[in-house]
Amino acid sequence: MTDRGIVVVGAGIVGASLAYHLSGRGRPVTLIDAGLPASGATHASFAWIGRPAVSDLPSAPLRYLALEEYRRLEKELGELSIRWSGAITWDGFDATGPRIDDVRALEPHLLDPPAVAVHRSEDAAFDPVATTELLVTAARDRGARVLTGVLATALDHRPSTVSGAGTTASDQNATTVSGVHTTAGFLPAETVVLAAGTGTVALCAGIGVALPVAPSPAILVRLSAAPGLVRTIVATSSLEVRQLDDGTVLAPEAYSGEKDQAALLATARRVRDRFAASFAGADDTKVLSAEIGWRPMPADEEPIIGRPAGTHGLYVAVMHSAITLAAAAGRLAASEILTGVPAPELAGCRPDRFH
Description:
Blueprint: E1 6-9, H1 13-22, E2 29-33, E3 48-49, H2 60-63, H3 66-76, E4 82-83, E5 87-89, E6 99-100, H4 103-106, E7 117-120, E8 124-126, H5 128-141, E9 145-148, E10 152-159, H6 169-172, E11 175-182, E12 185-188, E13 191-194, H7 199-205, E14 213-224, E15 233-235, E16 240-243, E17 248-254, H8 261-278, E18 286-298, E19 304-306, E20 311-312, E21 314-318, H9 322-339
């Protein structure tokens, strides 16, 4: 039975991390995506990674691992490039963390620095597309099969035939998933892992499993500016920015109903104007692009990771903060899938909390 292996649906950063952590462990792994790796919500991510100073969220044990897990990946994947710049926040933007009173020392080009700001020195950012592609390449090097341009259309399923000592009524009434129907044919699987973002909802609905996840749009604006204007990740209630070495400025923006490219461009120009008004030397900043990322947002905004109740052979991994959590969630979820031993850090993320 195990020779059917594991099929991971979705090659965003979560699916790529899962494929990487699952591969090379004695079971065949296949990663599929309707497009190219990182072509969905991952592509439009600001890619700021950090961890809460204090949190009472159900996912807190997972979130506390985030940065250490990325430092682990840095060691395992020599080409992974993470910019450990730290972050500074003020003006109503999540004010938890150590404070500094010399913001200009960190951001000398700020035109009107606050007297006091929160400084999260451990926070970092990276290129989400390059990181996803690196994880996919590493998974392939470990023996995983990668199929791009392949759309998952339905889960193959049947009533469970589980029986015997220790079998519960829930087990006997469960649905067993045995593979994925795709535009390239049927892929049999011992375990199907759904990491397809908002696409996971429809695939689960096809077997009677309801996941309360909705698309949550957010805009990412790219600006062209003089290099070196922004040194850290800067976040206020009106502007979030970080800058790449080539001068490109990334700025996430709340979605406000933009329906066409003209509306997106108008939003991007407003972001550019706020940026130019905030940093010295930014007067010549130009808009490069603006795009909408449709993030999968669980109803309670907490990750959904694990086997849905009433199913066998199915595992889901859907979350906001996917960039932040991908390294930790990928390792822990892969361990659960391969060993059957629950990871305590994922206890607050289970799908059955909605039922």
